[in-house]
Amino acid sequence: MPCRIVERRDCFIRHRVFSPGLLLPVLFLFSGCTSDKQDGPPSVMDSLAEMDKMRSDSAAIPQGKGALEPALADDATGPAEAGSGTESGTGTFKVKFESSAGDFVILVHRDWAPIGAQRFYELVKDGFYDECRFFRVLPGFMVQFGINGTPDKHRKWSRNIRDDEVRQSNKKGYVTFATAGPNTRTSQVFVNYANNDFLDGQGFAPFGEVIDGMHNVEAIFSGYGESPNQGQIEGVGNSYLKSNFPDLDYVKTARIIEETP
Predict the structure, then answer these.
(1) CATH number of the domain to which 208 belongs
(2) Which parts of the chain have pLDDT scores under 70?
(3) 82 lies in a domain?
């Protein structure tokens, strides 16, 4: 399911990211639009102008599910929902991402967002992010990823987790789950390219920060903007992206390299 972030350029963070094209009311917290219409990516200047407008309207939202897609079916399968008492509110861990754009390291602070941090830990341990494409890249705003290239594996992690309290601001380099509305986080995350504090009041709770290789994160290919369709990625997998968006950068591997209690 697509995630929103700024509600509709197509949809942003796992269940929301934002889209400089069409702006939908904040109430529509999409998780990755499922529309078949694929507009060409806007220019950088247009994107920045649109982001400025969204900031002033408080309408920018990261998303991760498909637009208007149900948050979670009652019979959804997958790992147990986080928030059941298994997550720890203390300690840190580092994750090294090797990517086609260069390596970077994310330091996760469990006390920032315990539920989100635990889900991210489980996803990395399962190798979920390996081969994931950076399918939504908006210079000056954020880069989003977290739809596994194998549909069956992606569905395995479709169980939503509860929201965390927002304890940190969405600063440049901070990492946050995309969402499609309250309590709809699953696997899509985004890295802020700027100080996007306007997302704080909309429930986007950062759980980590890029502490090494931010220049590589900023070098991730952005030529397709928000054109990749999240519903198609979830349903078809990387074969859809390889055929239609061959220049997308991607995660080679993501591994935990250090843990501190």
Answers:
(1) 2.40.100.10
(2) 1-62, 64-86
(3) no
